[in-house]
Amino acid sequence: MARGIDISVVAPVYNEEESLPELYEQVRAALDGPEARGATWELVLVDDRSTDRSLEVMLALRERDRRVHIVRFQRNAGQTAAMAAGFECAHGDVVVTLDADLQNDPADIPRMVAALDSGGGYDIVAGWRKKRHDGLFLRLVPSWIANRLIALVTGTHIHDTGCSLKVFRRQVVKNLPIYAEQHRFLPAMSRTTGARVLEMVVNHRARQYGQSKYGIGRALRVFLDLFVIKMISQFANRPLHYFGLFAMPFAAFSLVMLLFGAVDFARGSLVSEWPQMAAFSTAMFLLLAVHFVCLGLLSELVVTAGGVHRRNVLDRILADLREGPR
């Protein structure tokens, strides 16, 4: 792939043979048009091991235009893995993600890139499908619930986290290891390093070809990944505090048992079994509290050795430098 690219468009592909030619034409029209202001671009198509003629179509597009690049998996790995592979292969200063099913409109890309470079210090521009053309109960209602839950748990208030049309600065996506169904959490994950997110209303179109690859069963995976992201973001910053929360109830319960045992012993209940039971319970819960504290200390050593705290500080410094001197 050529270096020195302004915009890299990353599109995961799975059985989209009919939509790919139109996708290319629409991306070309948008980025070769006057709104793109002469920006150089590439289209990175990541084939998630399609079973139809998608690969043949992509090869034909590459022969037609060398700005089209193809990455193919040896097995089906999912949309998030496809996006991660596209990020690895992208060379643009700005990385754009969108679906290959034509429901995202490539004509929105120049406007979103312009918003990223508007001087507001933004690192991500996330699309908002304000008027969606999807099924009510299978797509719209689960999406609404997921968006509200993600905003509540992560603190990232975005109306449409599931919209694949997003624009990133390259350094943002290059430093984010993602897996499972975590592509929708990219803005929330990026905010932990100080990235600034802007939301923009984009056009959404009804699917023209094929059928959706995602069903209601994905909701559970997204729900579990949400709490993984929340735990990782808190754990990486303050692991000792995280484990300390688990240690505190055990320490408090051991103290209560110790006090009850001491009071009963002072009353002269030497033949009672309560002091022995209290002593055993105190020791057991105290050991559990010490165990969690030790895990927190070990985690602090691991995080410090991995340089997570230092990288977060550097990210904040770099963000300040991008804003200019104060």
Sheet with the most strands?
7 strands, mixed
What CATH architecture of the largest domain would you give? Alpha-Beta Complex
Overall mean pLDDT = 81
What Rg, in angstroms, do the CA atoms define?
A: 26 Å
Notes on the structure:
- The chain is of the alpha/beta class and 326 residues long.
- It folds into 2 domains: 5-233, Spore Coat Polysaccharide Biosynthesis Protein SpsA, Chain A (Alpha-Beta Complex); 238-323.
- The protein has helices at residues 20-31, 54-64, 79-89, 109-116, 136-154, 170-174, 186-191, 218-237, 239-266, 274-306, 308-323, and strands at 5-13, 41-47, 68-72, 92-97, 124-128, 166-169, 197-201.
- It has a 7-stranded mixed sheet.
- Strand 1 (5-13), helix 1 (20-31) and strand 2 form a beta-alpha-beta unit.
- Helix 9 packs antiparallel against helix 10 (274-306).
- The model is unreliable at 309-326 (pLDDT under 50).
Labels describing this entry:
alpha/beta, Spore Coat Polysaccharide Biosynthesis Protein SpsA, Chain A, 7 strands, disordered C terminus, seven-stranded mixed beta sheet, 326 residues
Secondary structure blueprint with pairings:
Elements: E1 5-13, H1 20-31, E2 41-47, H2 54-64, E3 68-72, H3 79-89, E4 92-97, H4 109-116, E5 124-128, H5 136-154, E6 166-169, H6 170-174, H7 186-191, E7 197-201, H8 218-237, H9 239-266, H10 274-306, H11 308-323
Parallel strand pairs: 1-2, 1-4, 2-3, 5-7
Antiparallel strand pairs: 4-6, 5-6
Helix pairs in contact: 5-8, 8-9, 9-10
